[in-house]
Amino acid sequence: MMHLVLLLSCIGLIYASAPPDLTVSNERYTGKVVGGQNAHPNMWRYQASLQYDNWNTGHYAHICGGSLVSPLYVMTAAHCILSLEAKFYRVVLGEYNLYKYEGTEQTRAVSKIIIHPGWTGDLTIGNDIALLRLASEVYGNGYITLADLPYPGQTLPNGFTCYITGWGLLATGGSAPDILQEAPIPVVEHSVCASPEWWGSAAKKSMICAGGDGNTSGCQGDSGGPLSCFTDGYWRVHGVVSYGPAVNCNMYTKPTVFTRVSFFLEWLYSQMV
């Protein structure tokens, strides 16, 4: 089986209502998340940047994405947790350009890390999901919102268009963007993704596959970030970026794999107390 790669960089709240016009030409989606473009400002208001201070010096670097699921909790991938010491992490909400202060940001220290008990470090087993409890609540400022989540057990049909967002590499081995990226990405239903030509047994029913067209995918630095899908009248976070192919982020028949949020709702709500 092809090697997997963690899509991880190593170094009053309101709700969305109607979908924006995100129709763009193919030319504008060439070469950037991989295959995307600069995100529409103030669109993905639940998107978080998880940042890590490797040497405990006060200098933080983006390592993963996340989604604000309550005023005190951010959902991310379990494999984004490099240390169980909460003091090494911070979360930035309302972020757009990582290297420019724009007055929209709220930065919070992390007070507690909660990793799914089924996480073993093996991506093919799954359970790649975690919660970060913030040191203080995030407040609504017009640039930050809570993520809506899917219904328990909800799945999406093959070809359903969702959006992947993040500050991950623009290509395998390429550069990381300053500005949040977005790209439309089609869902690949489980029966297809679990076939031998695709991810085979590495794709579990607790996961969502999207992409695999050789054009659009997540890449290193997008881990933990949302797969956003417009369902039932709202943008809902259906997935958490988990893994992709090690050889090339946007390989044909090797889509980005996400932890399926609807599979873990009971656990999520039980922890956010």
UniProtKB/TrEMBL annotation:
CDD domains: Tryp_SPc (cd00190). Gene3D superfamilies: Trypsin-like serine proteases (2.40.10.10). GO terms for cellular component: extracellular space. It is found in: Secreted. InterPro entries: Peptidase_S1_Elastase_sf, Peptidase_S1_PA, Peptidase_S1_PA_chymotrypsin, Peptidase_S1A, Trypsin_dom, TRYPSIN_HIS, TRYPSIN_SER. Its main location: secreted. The keyword Disulfide bond applies. Residues 1-16 form the signal peptide. It comes from the Eukaryota. The keyword Kinase does not apply. Pfam families: Trypsin. Keywords: Disulfide bond, Hydrolase, Protease, Secreted, Serine protease, Signal, Zymogen. SMART domains: Tryp_SPc. Residues 33-273 form the Peptidase S1 domain. One of its GO terms (biological process) is proteolysis. One of its GO terms (molecular function) is serine-type endopeptidase activity. This is Peptidase S1 domain-containing protein. It comes from Pygocentrus nattereri.
